[in-house]
Every structure is written in structure tokens, then in C-alpha cells.
Amino acid sequence: MTLKTRLRRTDPTGAEPQPPMTLPDGHWIGFDYPGRIAPLTRRELRPWHRLFLAGIRLGAKDTYDYTCFLVTVRLGRVFPLHTLFFSQLLQHGRIPQADSERIVIRVAWRMGCQYEFAHHTGMALELGVPRSEIETLTHEDDDGWSDRTRALMTAADELLASKNLSPLTFERRRCELDQNQILEFSMLVGHYVMAGMMLGVAGVQIEPAFELGVHASGGADRAMRR
């Protein structure tokens, strides 16, 4: 695919579906208010919006705009600053990127945010995190977790539940993360709590390539693309 082709905006309904994945049991927030705050249309975007979105498409290696960005572009000047902030935190922080994705998947599950769970599952797969491991990140605990993964998951849970880390947890995490990484960890968890709330309030819908389908068993299990 040429650079020109990748920068050219296409119709998201034409994107190739990704391999299915089951949405695990959890307290998922449905799309009760789909499109309550609508994504901006191509006509409503300013020239600098279009340029910045083209850069995001290039970085994501996709040729269509993700719905979340067409909603957050409504934030005006906050939009590019916010995008640069979380991109730096997620992709260029002190915590290895695969671990960051594990943390975000855990937070998305605890928050019940289907949108973030779908996208970050795909990102974790692209980074080489095995599908079998990703499926365990929504377990309360798992015998297959490494000591490091267990430390990250339990710390994320405690931070979400109590909004802090106890002295004991903090000291135990220092076996896996240094002080700078612990700060980054807390900011990463906090950011995706904020993102999950925003997506839920706006009713941001998942793009067709990431669509959820009802699993044959019904209930909370759903088939997911990506």
C-alpha cells in the first residue's frame, strides 16, 4: 500500500473484518445511546482536523477514521494535545508497550468499555501477545499469569477500586516497576477510565471492522472482530 493510498480517507464499512474474538463475561456497558454525541462529518471538519486525522490513519495503518477521533475532534485544540498525550504514554512510555496493552485491556474490562477492549485487543495481538493470554486478562486470577502480569493486573484492580495503592502494594510493585513507571502506570489507568467514561457518555459506536456479534451461547458472551 502506497503512502498516498494510506493517507486517502476511505469508507469504514469497506474495511476488511478482523478474526473473531469472544467478548468475555463482564459488566459491559451497552450502546443504549448510540451516537448521542455524533461524530463530525467530513464537511464539518476543518482543514487542520483533516490533516491531523490523516496522520492518525497513517500511524494506525488504516485508511478510515476511527469513530472515537471523529468525536474527540469536537474538543477543538484539546483534540491534538490529548491524542499526542495518550499516544506518547501508550506507545513511547517507560512501561513496555505489550504490558501497557495488558493494563488497558484490564481497565477496559473493569470499566465495561467494549470500544476500548476491541481496539486494544487488536493492538495487543499485533504486538505478539498471544490470544490465549489476552483471554485470561479478564479473569479474576489465572494460574498461567507470570508474576509480572499478576502484579500489573492486581495493582490495576486495586487502583480502580480504591483510587490508590496501599503501602504494601506499592512496595510489591517496586519489584516490577521503578518509581517513574509506577507514576506512568497510575496515569495510564486513570486515562483509560476517563476515555471509557467519555465513550460511554457520547455513545461512540465501534467501527464495522471491530463489530460485536452475539455469541451462540448468548448472555454476556459476544463474538468480536479483531
Structure, described:
This protein has 226 residues and is mainly α. It has one domain (31-225): Up-down Bundle (AhpD-like), CATH 1.20.1290.10. Helices cover 53% and strands 5% of the residues. It is built from ten helices and three strands, in the order H-E-H-H-H-H-H-H-H-H-H-E-E. Strands 1-3-2 form a three-stranded antiparallel beta sheet, with no helix packed on it. A hairpin with a 7-residue loop joins strand 2 and strand 3 (222-225). The longest helix is centred in the C-terminal third of the chain and has 24 residues, at 179-202. Residues 213-226 have low confidence and may be disordered.
What are its keywords?
226 residues; globular; AhpD-like; 53% helix; mainly alpha
**Overall helicity:** 40-55%
Strand order of the largest sheet: 1-3-2
**How many DSSP-defined strands?**
3
The tally of domains stands at 1
Q: What structural class do helix, strand and pairing data support?
A: mainly alpha
CATH topology: AhpD-like
Q: What is the secondary structure topology, with strand pairs?
A:
Blueprint: H1 3-7, E1 20-23, H2 47-60, H3 67-72, H4 78-91, H5 97-111, H6 114-126, H7 131-136, H8 147-162, H9 167-173, H10 179-202, E2 212-214, E3 222-225
Antiparallel strand pairs: 1-3, 2-3
Summarize the structure.
With 226 residues, the protein is mostly helical. It contains 10 helices and 3 strands; from the N terminus they run αβαααααααααββ.
